[in-house]
Amino acid sequence: MAGRTLYDKLVDSHTVRRFDAAGQRVLLYIDRTVLNEYTSPQAFTALREAGRPVWRPSAALGTVDHVNPTSALRTTHVPDAGAGRQVDYFGENCREFGIELFDVLHPMQGIEHVVMPEIGLVLPGMVIAAGDSHTTTYGAFGSLGFGIGTSDIEHYLATQTLVYSRLKPMRVTVDGALSQGVVAKDIVMALIRKIGASGATGYALEFSGPAISALSVEGRMTICNMAVECGARGALIAPDERVFADLRHRPRAPKGALWDLALTRWGALHSDADARFDRDVTLDADEIAPMVSWGTSPDQAAPIGGRVPDPTDEPDPRRRRDMERALVYMGLTPGTPLAAIPIDRAFIGSCTNARIEDLRAAAAILRGRHVADGVRAMVVPGSSDVRRVAEQEGLDRIFTEAGFEWRQSGCSMCLAMNDDVLAPGERCASSTNRNFEGRQGVGGRTHLMSPAMVAAAAIHGHLIDARQA
Amino acid sequence: MDPFITVAGVAAPLPAANIDTDVIMPKKFLKGIDRSGLAQGVFHDLRFDDQGGERADFVLNQSAWRQTRFLVVGPNFGCGSSREHAVWGLSQLGIRAIIGTSFGGIFFDNCAHNGLLAISVGDQDVAALMARAADPARNHLTIDLARQAIGGADGLSVSFDIEPTRREALMQGLDAIGTTLRYREEIKAFEQAHLEANPWLR
User: Fold this and answer.
1) Which CATH architecture is the domain B6-162 placed in?
2) Which of A144, A235, A345, A443 is 20 to 30 Å apart from B52, CA to CA?
3) Which residues of chain B from 20 to 79 reach within 8 Å of chain A, CB to CB?
4) What is the pTM of this model?
């Protein structure tokens, strides 16, 4: 029998029942979920209407993140009536069904995918499904995380399982070493550019290679998080000593003898040497430069030294039309150097890039400097804990002295469901994950990049290579 | 959930690649706690201008596509956010099936849970269907889920694959949770063994 991939090991170890002989469609046991206020309400309503209890309330955590304001003074007041109703109903649901809740005023409140690993609820070998596409983040710990819709949230809550179709395994090997000033965000943006926005649709990715092993756990989270932007519904990195060291001190990670036992099992969480992958993709880290997006899909991106591409160079007519449409929306002219694109806004935030290392990287650029005239710049820490740690390190002062707004935690302008929104036509350098039309506000124009690149753009008032900033 | 057996109606073309769920259902329609009232939100910023008037250039606003029941779409339709509101809205607008080469994975599953048939076929078949959807004289299609076939008035016939369990659920309009709970004892037994073997997961 051929060896198995890490992905297959995780699916096999969580299979309650096979619906076909090959195990392509299975009833999959889910270890844990995290809930938010905007994708869960209809699931709870449906449970209530059907008179169904939550199967295992202790395996769920609620955190308010998508719709809450991020203004510096924290209150329970949500100015938008609909959003306020969502927060209230979420609290009611968590209380009634016995689910732990980090509400707006809770000291551990934050973006779900920042909070879960932070408190040690994401452990190697787990399967975690949640009502948010960026649940793939958890692959950084060797845990299979994937996003689900509201019907599946309800299915999970009622049964602790999902009816699951097995994906095909794809290996992404990142050889070599990143040069100074090139980071995890650049690796994943380079991958998405290379294989396209649906290049990994139907696949579960496994990242490996020396450039991946060299990354911090936070960097690995950035990569697994954004893997969904090329269609992957699962992105794994085999857990190693660095992951175990990160987990050891997390409050909800196992302790004592339980920790020792867990550690003996976690060592087996890797693909077998003779495991077969349906597809292999290789990147050379030495060749990756800081990336920025120029279009309205995450694969429409290029190294910062490049130029806005010319659709007439694109032979495929449909891709050409998509490019033309993207450039009209983005208000960009073919041939413009990317580093000459002026910005109105700078945003550091999101589950992709608002952990403490991200804030440190941005602060290192900003120290003793100031944002350009006419640029409005914001930092929204990924969690309330990240915010506290940053304040202990004095990063908040670096940001505020540089002219950045130092805000409370939430998803904020990554998807602009709260009051942090781009005005029509405003152009934003953003450490987020999606440059879709209207994502950060109707008519808003998003350029994706790493937090240091956002900081550099804020200082100069235009996109720029942070290594030369 | 409405069973899907054979459905006939008008198909509309949406050829752009990577139409994401932010575009299908913009954020201002995500502030509810129920599933209602989402038809208005579907493709809102493409369908309506700043004043709320219809944009004449958007296909669903044109007379030949007012009664659209099927969408023929570009690759990676429904990518991005997990928001099921996109599917609820499409269903409320009367869309019963979407045909394309590939779909966002979460969107694809969300469709199945709501009786909306997402059909994945090859490039050439999508091109043939796109040409018909774009032509008011030929934009009437019939989808037969039992036979797994899409038929055009001009004799076109395209067959498609679908996972048998998904097909059965769509054809019978099954309650997925009720179906899974038939395995309640199996889940309990699995859970007990799983948590005993991995006690740190308790």
Assistant:
1) Alpha-Beta Barrel (3.20)
2) A345
3) 20, 22-23, 26-27, 30-35, 45, 74-76, 79
4) 0.97
